[in-house]
TrEMBL record:
Top-level taxonomic group: Eukaryota
Organism, as annotated: Apostasia shenzhenica
Cross-referenced SUPFAM superfamilies: Retrovirus zinc finger-like domains, Ribonuclease H-like
InterPro entries: GAG-pre-integrase_dom, PolX-like_BBD, RNaseH-like_sf, RNaseH_sf, Znf_CCHC, Znf_CCHC_sf
Protein known as: Retrovirus-related Pol polyprotein from transposon TNT 1-94
Molecular function via GO: hydrolase activity; nucleic acid binding; zinc ion binding
Annotated Polar residues bias: 178-196
Position of the signal peptide: none
Length: 522
């Protein structure tokens, strides 16, 4: 902005302002013309400043009279006092000294970062010479530029070496490095391809399986579990070290591009998942072969997508209209015949609920999905042979020790509903739904079609006890006739409260109060 104002020849007005004449001074025509011209320039400078400043900041400077006042105000806001400048300069010095070129960063990018910091330091009053920046860049390059730095320091006069010359020299060496790296990659790729083709074109494997006669074209994909790897022939049994082989697709080491997992067909991906899930299922079957079905044992499963239970009697409520299927690793499926909630009793006697549990009649083991638990903000950690389920608000919920076959069985006590109450009279149901509205009013709503879907209301002969209790009233306690204490502890009122629900933090359900009648202190 300063350069723009200088180009318009308005900078002297912004920098020094307008000298107003004394109130009683008599000005000549030439002086008046000059003063008006300076004021006009000041107005134009103010206009340029207003256009360059954003609206929120503009609101804070609208009251300024001259362009100098606006400039000084902005300078004070964003440049700060001498103390603020000093603190900012210290931070910039620290940033400048700790600058280092990152791995993979280009020379242009690093030089731009260094110049950005040095320009900020110059703006805050630091005298930065080019030789200081050149030395900083040379000592903070990555190790691959060490020989370039030595060459420059030996052959060039650093004091007379400009930043542009340094950047140009580094760019030339960087381009040579990139070309050399590309050539090495192509040579490595050619060497690997040649070795791969020659090793596939010879021999027939001996051992388990029939082996495979290579044809040199690399048309048959390699599999780590092929029978040909089991033999003793000269073909693919020569284990080639792939630790230094780079994949030209994902740029990771240890495999070829043709073996990269990012381009595996979907059927091979499914086969890989199938193998892993089959192992988990085999472990689960080994448990069931040695023990009968236990309805109170739940297995914490990290591969299970939903909680699943095979015992219908454990559900506190069950929606049997819900139907789905669950697939296992061996491509078999079982039917889900419902979904509901199961109430469990914790060690402290509290009743908790496991929501959205699938009812699978053919399932002999109850599965607790780790994924669903994490969706409820529970934290699950597995370490040192134990699985801990942790609630951030209440602490540890359960600690499950790993069994001998690497499973985590959790024994849970379920809360069976002792009574399943159901109201079959629709008149009573709607009486309760309308907050104990009288049956005459309900019948009026039904007869005049004031409520859509309201069934036929029959006025029952029974009486609603809640309605009677709500209409009763108590007589007031007598005032002024009871005896009151005149000294402390002359009369103490006591009462027992309980049982209360929920429990207190200490697990208690009762408490007793003592209230002094005279002081009313408890």
């Amino acid at each position: 902005m300063e350069n723009f104002l200088r180009s318009k020849e308005y900078w002297p007005i912004v920098e020094s302002g307008i000298e107003e004449p004394a109130p009683n001074a008599i000005l000549t025509d030439a002086q008046k013309t000059e003063l008006e011209g300076r004021k006009l320039k000041d107005l134009k400078a103010k206009n340029y400043l207003f256009k360059a400043i954003s609206r929120p900041i503009l609101e804070t400077i609208l009251s300024k009279e001259t362009s100098k006042d606006i400039w000084d105000s902005m300078k004070k806001k964003y440049q700060g006092s001498a103390r603020v400048k000093r603190a900012q300069l210290q931070a910039l010095r620290r940033e400048f000294e700790t600058l280092q070129m990152k791995d993979g960063e280009s020379v242009t990018s690093y030089c731009a970062r260094t110049m950005e910091v040095s320009n900020k330091m110059r703006f805050h009053g630091e005298k930065m010479e080019d030789v200081t920046i050149v030395e900083k860049i040379l000592r903070s390059l990555t190790p691959k530029f060490d020989y370039v730095v030595c060459s420059i320091e030996e052959s060039k006069d650093i004091d007379a070496f400009s930043l542009d010359e340094l950047q140009s020299s580094l760019l030339v060496h960087e381009q040579k490095m990139n070309r050399s790296s590309t050539s090495e990659e192509q040579a490595l790729k050619t060497s690997i391809s040649t070795h791969f083709s020659s090793s596939r074109g010879r021999g027939r494997g001996r051992g388990r399986g029939r082996g495979y006669r290579g044809n040199g074209d690399g048309s048959r994909p390699l599999k780590a579990n092929d029978d040909q790897f089991q033999g003793k022939g000269r073909g693919l049994n020569q284990h080639f070290d792939k630790s230094k082989v780079e994949c030209f697709r994902c740029h990771k080491y240890g495999h070829y591009r043709s073996e990269c997992y990012t381009r595996l067909p979907k059927d091979r991906e499914k086969q890989s998942h199938f193998t892993e899930e089959k192992e988990v299922e085999t472990l689960l079957m080994a448990v069931q072969a040695n023990q009968e079905s236990e309805s109170d044992v739940w297995y914490v499963d990290t591969g299970c997508s939903n909680h699943m239970c095979g015992s219908k009697s454990l559900f506190s409520n069950l929606n049997e209209a819900f139907h789905s299927t669950v697939s296992f690793g061996d491509c078999s499926t079982v039917k889900v015949m419902g979904k509901g909630d199961i109430n469990i009793i914790t060690k402290n006697g509290f009743v908790e609920t496991i929501f959205n549990v699938f009812y699978v009649p053919d399932l002999k083991s109850n599965l607790l999905s780790a994924g669903q638990l994490q969706e409820k903000d529970y934290v699950i950690t597995i370490k040192k042979g134990a699985c801990e389920i942790y609630d951030p608000s209440r602490g540890a919920i359960a600690v499950v020790q790993m069994s001998s076959n690497w499973l985590f069985p959790l024994k849970i006590t379920t809360s069976q509903p002792c009574l399943n109450a159901e109201v079959k009279d629709h008149s009573w149901i709607w009486h309760l739904r309308y907050d104990h509205l009288n049956f005459g009013g309900l019948k009026t709503l039904q007869q005049k079609d004031m409520v859509i879907g309201l069934p036929q209301i029959v006025i029952p002969s029974q009486v609603c006890e809640e309605c009677i209790i709500g209409k009763q009233h108590r007589s007031p306690f007598p005032q002024g006739k009871s005896w009151r204490a005149k000294t402390v502890l002359e009369l103490v009122h006591s009462d027992i409260c309980g049982p209360i629900n929920p429990y207190s933090n200490g697990g208690k359900r009762y408490f007793i109060t003592f209230i002094d009648d005279y002081t009313r202190k408890t």
